[in-house]
C-alpha cells in the first residue's frame, strides 16, 4: 500500500467520524453552516477539543518509544536500527531516519560519509517538511564550525526557514568572508537582530570588522545596547586607542570613566553614555546634557544617544523624562548604530500616549519606518491622534479601513466610530466538498494528524502549516473546515487566521465547544463566559492535554501550584492533579479568573495581565499611575512585550466571543472591557 492509499484509507475513517453536519453537506459548492452543531447540555465530549477517535497502533507505540528513548539518551545503535525496521512503511518513518542522521552528525560532524548520506536524504525528500527540518538542524551544527561550504548546501534548498534569524546571520557571515555583501548591510542586520547575545551575532560582528575595521565603534555601540558587553569590550580592547585600564574603567564604571577623563574622545564618550544608560538612564541623560558645547558629537551621534536614553526611560515608566529625551532627537535612524530602531520608535509613540500628547503621537508615528508605520496598531493611534485634535474627517479616512478587520485594533476603530463589529463573511465562491476532500490526501496533513494523535503538538503544527504553503484563500478555507471536521481546533483557528478580511466564519476562528458546560462553569465562578473562551483560545487553542515548558497544563494553562491554591481558596472539588481533564481545567481556571477579577475590582486589563505575568506585575504596573488612565493606553504601556500582546489578544478574543454569544449587546464591548485603569486605592465602580 503506497502513501496515497494510506491517506485515502485514513481519510475515509475520519469522514466516518465527522459531525452530522459535515456528512450531510451537499457535494458541490457547499456553504459552511452559519453556526456550529449544538453542544450537549451535559458531559464533556473529547471530540469537542481534540481528535481522539482512534486508538494507537503498535507502530504508533514504537514511534513514541523511539522518541522517549532518544529524548532520554537511552537508545543504543541497535535500538535505532530495530525501531527503523519496525516502522518501515509507517507514514512517520522518515522522521526516524532524519533523527538518526542528526544524532550521528552531531556526534561526529567530521564524518563525511554520514554527511553525504544526510544530504542525499534531504535531496530525496525535498518538498517535505522532514527535509526542511533536517536541513535546518544540520545547518545549525555546521555554521558555528565555520563549514561554509556545507552550510550553503544545507541553507540554499530551504523553503521555509531561510529567514530564521540565526541562519540569516550565519549566511551573511559567510558572504562577508567570501568577499560578498557589505559591512554596512551586515551592520543593518545586527541592528535589527532579535538578540545580540548570541554566538552568531558575535560571529557577524567579527566578520564585519575583518572586512571593515573602521566599523569597530558602531558595532560596539550596537552590542552595548543589545547587552553583549563581553563582545563589545573585546572590540574596544582590540580596535580602540584606549589602554587596558581605560577599557576596564569604561565598562565597569562608565560614570567614573567620564569623571576621570576630562576630554574623552567621541567614541568612548558615546560608549560611556550608552553603558551608563543601561543602568541609570536619568543619570546618563544628565551626563549627556552636561557635555561641553564644543564636544565633537554630530547631530547623528546625539540622535543615537537621546533616542536610546528615551527608550530606556520609557521602559522604566518614566514617560516625562522619556518625552524630553526623545524631543532632543530629530531622527530615528542615526548612522545605523541604534539597536532595534522600530522598538525605540514604538516607545517614542507610547511616551506621548502616556502623557496625552496627541500631537507628539502623530509626530512619533511619522518617524517610524514605512513598514512599521503601516502596522494596524500604529495606524489606529495615528487616526486616534487626529480624532483627538479635531480632524475627524482625516481620522475617519485612516480608521474606516480598520473597521473591516476582526482584530483588536479593528474593534477599537469600530468603537471610536460607533460601529458594529464585522460579522460573518462567506468565501466567494462557496467551498465545495471536493475542496475539503483534497486535503485528506495531502501527506503533510496525514502526518500532522498522526503526530497530534501522539500528542506531538509542535511537530503536528509544523507539518500542517507546511502543507498550507502557497495555498490560496479558497484552499485555506477548505483546510480550516477539514480541521473542524476532524476536531483539530488549534489548526482550524490557525488556518482560518490566514484568511483575508473578506472571509470570516466565527465557527472556524472562534469556536465555542461545549457551550452549555462552559457557560455553567463561568456562571458559577461569576466571570463572563466570553472571557473564559477568550483565555482558552489564547492559552491552548482548545488542546486539553498541551503543556508548556514552565509546566502549565491544559486548556487554560494552569500551573499545578496555582490550581491547588485556587481549589483550596474557593472550595472547588475539582482535582488539581487532573488538569488535562477539560472540565477540571476550566473550573479551576475560571475560579482563578474570579480571584484576579475581584482583586483588581473588575478591571479586566489588570486581571488578564495578572493571569499571564502574575498579579504582582499588575500591581507594580498600576503603581506607576498617579491619575486614572484610559485602558487602551494602559495596555499599550505594559513593558513586557509578551504580556502586552497577550492582554490585547485575550480581550480582543473576549469582545469577539461577546459578539457571537450576545450579538445585540456587542457594540463597544472592547472599549468597555478596557475601561479606565485607576491608581491603587482609587478604583472606579
Give a description of the structure.
Residues 521-623 form the Transglycosylase SLT domain. InterPro entries: Lysozyme-like_dom_sf, Lytic_TGlycoase_superhlx_L_sf, Lytic_TGlycosylase_superhlx_L, Lytic_TGlycosylase_superhlx_U, Transglyc_AS, Transglycosylase_SLT_dom_1. It comes from Mesosutterella faecium. This protein has 40 helices and 2 strands. The chain is globular. Mean pLDDT is 89; it is low at 1-47. The relative contact order is 0.07. The termini are far apart. The chain has 685 residues and is mainly α. Strands 1-2 form a two-stranded antiparallel sheet.
Keywords:
signal; Lysozyme-like_dom_sf; two-stranded antiparallel sheet; Lytic_TGlycosylase_superhlx_L; Transglycosylase SLT domain-containing protein; 1% strand; Transglycosylase_SLT_dom_1; mainly alpha
Describe the structure in brief.
The chain is mainly α and 685 residues long. The chain has 40 helices and 2 strands. It is globular and about 75 Å long.
Topology:
Layout (H helix, E strand, L loop, with lengths): L2 H15 L2 H4 L34 H15 L4 H10 L6 H15 L4 H13 L4 H14 L5 H8 L9 H13 L5 H10 L6 H13 L4 H10 L3 H11 L4 H9 L1 H7 L5 H14 L1 H9 L9 H17 L3 H9 L13 H14 L3 H9 L3 H4 L2 H13 L3 H8 L8 H9 L16 H6 L4 H11 L3 H11 L5 H13 L3 H8 L9 H4 L5 H11 L3 H11 L20 H11 L11 H18 L4 H10 L1 H9 L5 E2 H6 L4 H21 L7 H6 L1 E2 L8
Antiparallel strand pairs: 1-2
Amino acid at each position: 500500500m503506497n502513501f496515497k492509499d494510506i491517506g485515502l484509507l485514513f481519510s475515509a475513517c475520519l469522514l466516518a467520524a465527522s459531525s452530522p453536519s459535515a456528512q450531510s453537506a451537499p457535494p458541490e459548492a457547499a456553504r459552511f453552516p452559519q453556526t456550529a452543531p449544538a453542544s450537549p447540555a451535559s458531559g464533556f465530549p473529547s471530540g469537542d477539543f481534540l481528535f481522539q477517535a482512534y486508538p494507537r497502533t503498535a507502530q504508533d507505540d514504537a514511534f513514541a518509544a523511539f522518541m522517549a528513548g532518544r529524548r532520554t539518551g537511552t537508545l543504543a545503535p541497535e535500538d535505532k536500527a530495530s525501531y527503523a525496521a519496525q516502522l518501515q512503511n509507517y507514514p512517520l518513518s522518515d522522521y526516524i531516519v532524519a533523527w538518526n542522521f542528526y544524532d550521528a552528525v552531531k556526534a561526529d560532524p567530521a564524518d563525511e560519509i554520514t554527511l553525504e548520506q544526510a544530504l542525499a536524504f534531504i535531496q530525496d525528500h525535498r518538498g517535505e517538511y522532514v527535509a526542511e527540518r533536517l536541513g535546518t538542524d544540520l545547518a545549525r551544527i555546521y555554521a558555528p564550525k565555520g563549514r561554509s561550504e556545507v552550510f550553503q548546501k544545507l541553507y540554499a534548498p530551504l523553503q521555509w526557514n531561510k529567514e530564521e534569524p540565526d541562519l540569516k546571520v550565519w549566511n551573511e557571515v559567510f558572504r562577508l568572508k567570501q568577499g560578498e555583501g557589505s559591512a554596512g548591510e551586515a551592520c543593518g542586520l545586527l541592528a535589527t537582530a532579535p538578540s545580540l547575545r548570541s554566538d552568531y551575532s558575535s560571529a557577524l560582528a567579527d566578520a564585519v570588522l575583518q572586512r571593515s575595521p573602521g566599523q569597530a565603534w558602531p558595532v560596539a555601540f550596537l552590542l552595548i545596547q543589545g547587552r553583549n558587553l563581553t563582545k563589545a569590550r573585546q572590540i574596544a580592547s582590540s580596535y580602540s586607542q584606549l589602554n587596558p585600564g581605560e577599557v576596564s574603567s569604561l565598562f565597569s564604571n562608565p560614570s567614573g570613566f567620564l569623571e576621570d577623563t576630562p576630554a574623552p574622545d567621541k567614541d568612548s564618550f558615546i560608549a560611556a553614555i550608552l553603558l551608563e544608560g543601561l543602568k541609570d538612564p536619568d543619570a546618563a541623560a544628565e551626563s549627556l546634557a552636561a557635555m561641553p558645547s564644543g564636544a565633537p558629537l554630530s547631530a547623528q551621534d546625539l540622535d543615537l544617544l537621546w533616542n536610546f536614553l528615551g527608550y530606556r526611560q520609557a521602559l522604566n515608566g518614566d514617560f516625562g523624562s522619556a518625552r524630553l529625551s526623545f524631543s532632543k532627537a530629530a531622527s530615528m535612524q542615526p548612522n545605523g548604530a541604534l539597536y532595534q530602531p522600530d522598538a525605540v520608535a514604538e516607545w517614542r509613540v507610547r511616551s506621548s500616549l502616556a502623557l496625552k500628547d496627541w500631537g507628539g503621537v502623530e509626530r512619533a508615528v511619522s518617524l517610524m519606518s514605512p513598514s512599521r508605520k503601516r502596522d494596524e496598531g500604529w495606524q489606529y493611534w495615528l487616526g486616534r491622534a487626529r480624532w483627538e485634535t479635531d480632524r475627524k474627517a482625516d481620522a475617519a479616512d485612516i480608521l474606516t479601513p480598520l473597521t473591516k478587520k476582526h482584530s483588536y485594533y479593528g474593534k477599537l476603530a469600530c468603537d471610536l466610530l460607533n460601529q458594529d463589529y464585522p460579522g460573518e463573511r462567506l468565501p466567494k465562491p462557496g467551498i465545495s466538498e471536493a475542496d475539503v476532500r483534497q486535503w485528506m490526501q495531502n501527506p503533510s496533513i496525514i502526518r500532522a494528524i498522526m503526530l497530534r494523535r501522539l500528542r506531538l503538538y509542535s511537530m503536528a503544527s509544523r507539518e500542517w502549516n507546511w502543507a498550507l504553503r502557497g495555498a490560496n484563500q479558497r484552499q485555506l478555507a477548505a483546510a480550516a473546515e477539514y480541521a473542524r471536521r476532524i476536531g483539530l481546533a488549534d489548526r482550524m483557528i490557525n488556518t482560518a487566521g490566514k484568511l483575508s478580511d473578506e472571509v470570516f466564519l466565527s465557527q472556524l476562528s472562534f469556536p465555542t465547544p461545549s457551550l452549555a458546560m462552559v457557560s455553567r462553569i463561568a456562571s458559577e465562578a461569576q466571570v463572563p463566559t466570553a472571557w473564559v473562551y477568550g483565555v482558552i483560545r489564547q492559552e491552548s487553542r482548545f488542546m486539553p492535554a498541551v503543556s508548556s515548558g514552565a509546566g502549565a497544563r491544559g486548556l487554560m494553562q494552569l500551573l499545578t501550584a496555582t490550581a491547588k491554591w485556587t481549589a483550596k481558596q474557593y472550595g472547588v472539588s475539582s482535582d488539581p492533579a487532573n488538569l488535562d481533564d477539560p472540565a477540571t481545567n476550566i473550573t479551576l481556571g475560571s475560579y482563578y479568573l474570579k480571584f484576579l477579577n475581584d482583586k483588581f475590582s473588575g478591571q479586566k486589563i489588570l486581571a488578564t495581565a495578572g493571569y499571564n505575568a502574575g498579579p504582582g506585575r499588575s500591581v507594580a504596573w498600576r503603581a506607576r499611575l498617579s491619575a486614572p488612565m484610559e485602558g487602551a493606553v494602559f495596555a499599550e504601556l505594559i513593558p513586557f512585550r509578551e504580556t502586552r500582546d497577550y492582554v490585547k489578544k485575550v480581550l480582543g478574543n473576549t469582545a469577539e466571543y461577546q459578539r457571537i454569544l450576545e450579538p445585540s449587546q456587542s457594540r463597544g464591548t472592547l472599549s468597555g472591557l478596557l475601561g479606565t485603569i485607576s491608581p491603587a486605592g482609587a478604583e472606579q465602580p
